[in-house]
Amino acid sequence: MSYREHKIAQTAELLREGVYDGALGPVAMFAEHLAGNGSLGLGMTLHAGTTVEQMVEHYVSDGDGQIELSAWAKDEAEGQQIEAEMEGAA
């Protein structure tokens, strides 16, 4: 595994852990992704007091949600790495 691949894997893991731990930044980023594809709140009964964090927690509570989280985290980490590389080249 190259240094670049290692950095991407490390960042993706931090994003996944952040979502599972309820960290505001990663949860908000993943919620935005889910909202963009129409999956935020999918499969749950929503109430006036339902929070975005609860919707994300529900989404990643099954295997399909965990797979989606992993794919999103990898894509997001790759995007962050590309941005860092472009900033370094400028």
User: Can you give the mean pLDDT?
Assistant: 95
Distance between the termini: 26 Å
Uncertain parts: none
Number of helical elements: 4
Describe the structure.
The protein is mostly helical and about 90 residues long. Helices cover about 75% and strands about 0% of the residues. It has 4 helices and no strands. Helix 2 (about 25-35) crosses helix 3. The longest helix is centred in the C-terminal third of the chain and has 27 residues, at about 65-90. The chain is elongated.
Give the SSE map.
Elements (H helix, E strand, L loop, with lengths): L2 H19 L2 H13 L15 H8 L3 H27 L1
Concise description?
This protein has helices spanning 3-21, 24-36, 52-59, 63-89. By secondary structure, the protein is an all-alpha fold.
Provide tags for this entry.
single chain, 90 residues, mainly alpha, 4 helices, 0% strand, elongated
